[in-house]
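Why does residue order matter? Because the sequence determines the fold. Keep that principle in mind as you read this record.
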Amino acid sequence: AVVPLAGGKSVYALVHSIGGDLQINVYPDLVNVDAIVPSDAARRTIAAMTAAYFAPAIDAAAVKTAQRDSAVLAVQNRYTSEALLHDALFERLFSAGPAHYPAIPYTVEALTRITPEAVAAFARRAFRSSNAFLSLAGNVDASSLDAITDGTASGGPDRPFDSTLAASPASGTTPGAVTGVGFAWVGPSIEDERAATALDFVADYLFREGTGVVAQALDAGSDDAYVRGQFVTLHDPGIMLVTLGGDSLTGAKARVLDAIGKLAKPMDPQAFAAAREAFLYHLASDTQTPDEQADNLGWYAAEGNPSYAPGSASGDYLRVARSLDPQFVAGIVRRYLSNPVVITLVAPAKESAS
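Structure:
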């Protein structure tokens, strides 16, 4: 993103010069690079992004910039319970493979060991055009693809990177700069669309900010606890992840487990119908902008099932969501959400004032 291209500007500089926004999100098994730009700059942006990522020419200055920025992100993550718990839980759930490791190392030493030569070699292999999924949304059409400047169509993409599940992942504690509690359950693969959608529904019904049953209860309580929950749709397996932050978490922890336990029995049909309609509304709300649509299309394509992407023109996800019923959801809860791995972040004790 920061290497100057033939025209003199980097992708980062170009996108910001036209009033756009560049977002880079790194996960253990894939990378998302999203540019949100005015429609009249779409072709220029596609040309610049494909030049940068399909024919990468990375120099030492760019690597130094990346190390500096990654060090800042690493410090932020050390003070973010959600990020710490995500990495700690995935480390316990997976004994090997990319998901066993944090996407961004937490120490400066680990970052500075990365050499320009290693980065360049990785980029040539991983960022080849045949390994990329280019998704466009908004005021664009197929002719926009004519702006691709580099890359070849030879070969095909790597298979999605699955990680090895631990035989007996153990709950426990881990030190942190902040407190928190995290829960994780191993769920279905992306190919089991109905089961995966059922767990998306559960996460929405219980944990969605502002409307989720648990989220609302914690907001209304006297404690400062807050909850985040989602089913992370991966190639195989997906992971249900719930994290709690704040200082008073004992009651919140019990509330999470109790709420999931109640869903092991079928909901009242009328209440379920209302919750499913709310879920469908939230899906529409979360997939209405071009960046949300393009991000979903890219993620689900990289994970091996592009037509299942929420917001896709195929409509597959909505059809599956509308097919959910109380008995099926309860069965999925019993099958997948019975034995969580639980991690508690333990922060250093506060010193009392003298």
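The chain has a mean pLDDT of 94.
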